[in-house]
Amino acid sequence: MPFCPVCYDEFQEWVKICPDCNVALVKELPVQPEREETDEPLVHIATAPNEPIANMWSGILEEHNIRCLLKGGNLGAAMYIPNLLLPFEIYVLASEAEKAREIITPFLED
Ligand SMILES: [Zn+2]
Predict the structure, then answer these.
(1) Most CB contacts within 10 A, which of 2, 39, 57, 65?
(2) How close is the Cα of 25 to the center of ligand 1, in Å?
């Protein structure tokens, strides 16, 4: 089965190019990277008002061994607003959402 070397998706034999990454598929992945995989959904737990705060929150969560994903604000607005002022959304794995909310809640209050 061909694989995409970028996103590691597996495709059917007749597919030659990954439609997502636009790269040629390879027969086998050379080295299976150590990836922590999970089918767990991500849950939105908070929106930080800007990137430095989002980074601070994610640092706090990571200290508690909670992996998080930051999603930068609205791209439409990015043309007018410097990155520093864009809100960032914070996502964590569903199983860790409750703990993450507890940790982050004190920081949400002004
Ligand atoms: Zn791909």
Answers:
(1) 57
(2) 8
Domain of 56?
Answer: 42-108
* Claim to verify: residue 17 and residue 58 sit in the same structural domain: no
Residues 84-103: pLDDT tens digits?
A: 577 889 999 999 999 999 99
Number of domains in the chain: 2
DSSP assignment of the chain equals: --B-TTT--B--TT--B-TTT--B-BSS-SS--------PPEEEEEEESSHHHHHHHHHHHHHTT--EEEEE--HHHHTTS-GGGS-EEEEEEGGGHHHHHHHHHHHH--
pLDDT digits (tens, 9 = 90+) for 24-36: 999 877 665 555 6
User: From ligand 1's centre to the CA of 31, what distance in Å?
Assistant: 16
On the question of pLDDT at 81 being above 60, the answer is: no
